[in-house]
Automatic annotation (TrEMBL):
A single MF term (Gene Ontology): DNA-binding transcription factor activity
Biased composition (Low complexity): 304-315
Family matches, as Pfam families: Peripla_BP_3
Alphabetical UniProt keywords: DNA-binding, Transcription, Transcription regulation
Limits of the HTH lacI-type domain: 1-39
Annotated gene: ccpA_2
Region (Disordered) location: 304-333
Superkingdom assignment: Bacteria
Listed name of the protein: Catabolite control protein A
Membrane among keywords: no
Organism of provenance: Starkeya nomas
Length: 333
């Protein structure tokens, strides 16, 4: 019976189900303290996130917790508040209570991550470290497709609105936009949003408009949503006056207009990371694995043709027309 709770992957699904049904009927509950004494395992894992309020990490957390529960493990959650120091503290304090860690988008430097991985098994998400199990959400292709989309719609200056430079995902996305933009003959402006948030997106709108960009590709949907709000406050309509693209595809379908976004399969990343960790715990000499999840562009209503520019005195380009107080009927979706 114990194996059905501790290592269900070693049994057939029918056997596991039969054991669990019988245990439920008898009111049997595994004694975690006794199990820890006999096996050296606590039956817990920890998931460390930079920002639990960010929809990407919330979805990742749900995927990870569901998979851990399915395999008989409880999940501790730590929010590092986007700081490497707190990440380090959480890894140190939780190590005695868990069998291993899933470390999502870590802000720690490589040396410290390896130090903690030598103490407890660690799987990282969105950090490519040789010798450590990892799940990489590769959104490069999605951002390349996003640049191709806006180029095909006539946009000549675009902006990438990014996150902290310590973010592996941000680096991949910024590079994809810069390289693909250059290939398509576009002018690419990079704007740092700082910590990804709705307010960060709103705050960068002035720089976006000053740059002459007519389309923005944001590091995630939350920043993109903030950009949309900031543009609306200035009387601009999307996509008539400006196009916006996000990433993660968590809240994209709920914005107005619905947001074009790169689907990052967040929940799947969390589930895969838990599987890598628990498979490693079950195998004394586990192979170091790397799972790559490909993101793809989902086109919705926030992208459209580049706006016509208004000639300024002297023949220079002054910028887009500011929309009237009410949109014309053709702009409604």
């Amino acid at each position: 019976m114990s194996r059905a709770f501790s290592q269900p992957e070693l049994l057939t699904p029918a056997t596991v189900e039969k054991v669990l049904v019988t245990a439920q009927r008898l009111g049997y509950v595994p004694n975690q303290v006794a199990r820890a004494l006999s096996t050296g395992r606590a039956g817990n894992i920890a998931l460390i996130l930079p920002d639990v309020a960010n929809p990407f990490f919330s979805a990742l957390m749900r995927g990870a917790q569901a998979q851990a529960y399915k395999r008989g493990y409880a999940t501790f959650l730590g929010d590092s508040d986007e700081t490497a120091h707190l990440e380090d503290v959480l890894l140190g304090k939780l190590a005695a209570q868990v069998d291993g860690f899933v470390l999502a988008s870590p802000r720690l430097d490589e040396q410290l991550i390896r130090k903690h991985a030598a103490r407890r098994p660690v799987v990282v998400i969105n950090r490519d470290l040789d010798g450590i199990g990892r799940v990489l959400v590769d959104t490069t292709g999605g951002f390349e497709a996003a640049v191709d989309l806006v180029a095909g719609l006539g946009h000549r200056t675009i902006a990438y609105v990014g996150a902290p430079v310590s973010s592996w995902s941000n680096q991949q996305r910024a590079n994809a936009v810069a390289i693909t933009g250059a290939t398509r003959g576009l002018r690419v402006v990079e704007i740092a949003a700082g910590r990804p948030s709705h307010e960060a997106g709103r705050s960068c709108v002035a720089k976006l408009l000053e740059s002459g960009a007519t389309a923005a590709l944001a590091v995630d949907d939350v920043v993109a949503q903030g950009i949309m709000a900031g543009l609306a406050e200035r009387g601009l309509f999307i996509p008539r006056d400006f196009s916006v693209i996000g990433c993660d595809d968590i809240i994209a379908s709920t914005t107005y207009p619905p947001l074009t976004s790169v689907n990052a399969h967040c929940a799947l990343a969390g589930a895969n990371a838990v599987d890598l960790l628990l498979n490693g715990l079950a195998n004394p000499t586990p192979p170091i694995e790397s799972h790559v999840i490909k993101g793809e562009l989902v086109i919705r209503g926030s992208t459209g043709p580049a706006p016509a520019l208004v000639p300024a005195p002297g023949g220079r380009t002054r910028g887009r027309k500011v929309a009237p107080a009410e949109p014309d009927p053709s702009s409604r979706k």
